[in-house]
Write a structure and sequence with these properties.
By secondary structure, the protein is mainly alpha-helical. It has helices at 2-20, 45-70, 72-78, 88-110, 113-132, 137-154, 157-163, 170-197, 207-228, 242-247, 251-270, 280-303, 317-348, 352-380, 384-401, 410-438, 444-488, 496-506, 519-554, 583-589; strands spanning 36-37, 568-569. The protein folds into three domains: 29-232 and 244-249 and 308-477 and 532-589, Up-down Bundle (Growth Hormone, Chain: A), CATH 1.20.1250.20; 250-307; 479-531.
Length: 590
């Protein structure tokens, strides 16, 4: 069957080029391959093998994203002297992923897909190894930068899954990808929790094992890509060499986007923690970053017609609306990934394994949301009201999360985290599918990766904003709450300064070493700190509610999406029986 498909591709390409001789409006860079009809499509071994390799990337990227976020509280406990920078463990990865996703789709649309996926696996493996071997929190963050770049390349798999199946089957193919992601999303926190609880490698060292497993998964995925993923050569109607295509890349746009994003997000993350917003290091990074991003926007809009943001991608109104929703989805997804585990640890005082158990409602519902949403879209084909419903569910979950306090039963935690996970998973799945459907076939990877970058940018801003809000509130609430509880429990006022200093530098487990501290004082301080953390976390959920409302309003910009569900296949996979035929030879045959 695959051989028949290849013959049809060659035949249809001949007809397509003949038509082009009478149609001067065909743009350079559009695909040479006339889209195949789904009546010619079959779920052959060749298709399934290619999908398997791409699904492995989904599994590995999910693991590489979730494990570090799950372990933030425990990494901070291992390096208490740098605990104030712990949010960078998630932020640095989201930042580098956003930078990579900003241009990786465009470059893969010009060059081959495979090399970027392999490069991402190598970066991910190195980054996870560095994080696992870290002897400081800064080294963990450095590894996360490389890990984030790998994840950014890995999320290229989302459009690649879509382009090798008919549009009518894209929701189904994406739903199966969700199952692979579920393996990491559900299993990673539990496996990591077991390592942490048992102290594999020593006290406060168990979190490192999850990083080592992530490195191994990146290596296995690299092997899977080499064995199974064989896409068709990228279209090259102009006949440019690799060097010519490199020179024609919008390097100015790539520089402006990368430099602007990096400087701006670094600036807002440093603002208020640990530097004042008016300090030179904050203003000296945030302002130049904002200026570079503004120049990048003007350059892409007016300065070039071949930038890293192809203008044709933004001609569809639904795609533009989807980008806005994806940013808010990033606020929810990455913010929850970074802070829900911290809520469980600081408010309920759970160990590594129980922290993972308490995350199960959100993890499982996220997977279920993605599966159910893909199926619903497959049959109803309209996205507006589905997304409005999902954002309403997310808003309800955020409101209920405000009720979470120390001592509440598991049910009070279960329902809001389940609702939030359901909405987050469904939104991510739907917007990814819509981005691929609304984009021109020759720019699917670019369009979807721009959407991924929008989600990462939203996530980076979210974790930064949430960190600022949380740190400001915990600094305001915690010292007073601890002091009041300790004095009431019998601590002499003369020892209060020592208690606060020990708590800040060594954690609550070191309080018994302070003179005058009794078991009653430790218990009182523990309860007071949990209440203070719970109260501080509520301000994060208030912020999320605002973004849910704004995003719901953005859904009114959607138009009908039924028109997208056709029989087209954007990019069939390579027929392995003809693998000896090189792209130039095929062109000569044509």
């Amino acid at each position: 069957m695959a051989a028949d498909l290849d013959d049809k591709v060659l035949s249809s390409t001949v007809e397509h080029r003949e038509d082009d001789s009478h149609n001067e409006s065909v743009q350079p860079g559009t695909t040479d391959v006339e889209n195949l009809n789904s009546s010619d499509f079959t779920w052959s071994f060749n298709i399934l093998a290619n999908l398997f390799a791409l699904y492995m990337i989904i599994l590995t990227s999910s693991w590489s994203t979730i494990v570090p976020a799950t372990a933030i509280a425990f990494i901070a406990a291992r390096f208490p002297e740098d605990a104030s920078n712990a949010a960078w463990i998630a932020t640095s990865s989201a930042l580098s992923s956003a930078v990579a996703a900003a241009f990786i789709g465009n470059m893969s649309d010009i060059f081959d897909r495979r090399s970027f996926l392999l490069f991402g696996c190598v970066l991910g493996c190195i980054g996870m190894l560095i994080g696992g071997r870290a002897n400081s929190l800064s080294m963990v963050i450095g590894g996360q930068v490389l890990n984030g770049l790998g994840v950014g390349c890995g999320f290229l798999s989302n459009p690649l899954i879509q382009e090798i199946v008919p549009k009518n089957h894209r929701a189904l193919a994406t739903a199966f990808a969700t199952i692979f992601g579920a393996g990491s999303f559900i299993g990673a926190p539990i496996i990591e929790g077991v390592f942490i609880q048992r102290g594999i490698g020593g006290a406060l060292e168990g979190w490192r094992i999850g990083f080592y497993v992530g490195a191994g998964l990146n290596l296995l995925t690299l092997i899977s890509i080499l064995l199974f993923y064989h896409p068709m050569p990228r279209p090259n109607p102009e006949g440019y060499s690799a060097k010519q295509r490199l020179l024609k890349l919008d390097w100015l746009g790539i520089f402006l986007a990368c430099a602007g994003l990096t400087l701006f997000l670094v600036g807002i993350n440093y603002g208020g923690n640990p530097y004042e917003w008016t300090s030179a290091i904050v203003l000296g990074t945030m302002i130049p970053g904002a200026v570079l991003l503004a120049i990048f926007g003007l350059w892409e809009w007016k300065g070039t017609s071949t930038g890293i943001l192809p203008h044709a991608v933004f001609q569809d109104r639904n795609y533009n609306a989807a980008l806005l929703i994806r940013v808010s989805g990033g606020f929810a997804l990455y913010g929850c990934q970074a802070f829900l585990p911290q809520v469980v640890v600081h408010v309920f005082g759970t160990d590594g394994l129980m922290t993972a158990v308490w995350q199960l409602p959100m993890s499982v519902s996220t997977i279920m949301g993605a599966l159910v949403a893909a199926i619903i879209l497959r049959y109803f084909k309209e996205i507006r009201w589905i997304v409005v419903g999902l954002l309403t569910i997310l808003l309800i979950g955020a409101c209920l999360m405000v009720l979470v306090k120390p001592g509440v039963n598991f049910a009070v935690w279960f329902f809001p985290s389940m609702l939030m996970g359901l909405a987050i998973g469904a939104e991510a799945s739907l917007i990814t599918i819509l981005s691929g459907l609304a984009a021109p076939n020759e720019s699917i990877a670019t369009a979807v990766c721009i959407g991924v970058a929008a989600g990462f940018i939203g996530g980076a801003i979210a974790t930064t904003m949430y960190s600022q809000i949380f740190n400001a509130k915990i600094k305001e609430i915690l010292p007073g709450a601890i002091s009041k509880a300790a004095i009431a429990a019998g601590l002499p006022e003369s020892r209060l300064a020592d208690l606060l200093s020990t708590y800040a530098t060594k954690g609550i487990q070191a309080l018994p070493t302070v003179q005058g501290v009794t078991s009653e004082v430790v218990q009182a301080v523990t309860e007071a700190s949990r209440s203070a953390y719970a109260k501080s976390f509520t301000y994060i959920w208030y912020t999320l509610v605002v973004f849910c409302v704004v995003s719901a309003m953005g859904c009114w910009f959607f138009t009908s999406t039924t028109k997208y569900f056709t029989d087209e296949i954007a990019a069939p996979v390579m027929d392995r029986s003809n693998k000896n035929i090189q792209p130039n030879e095929k062109n000569e045959r044509i």
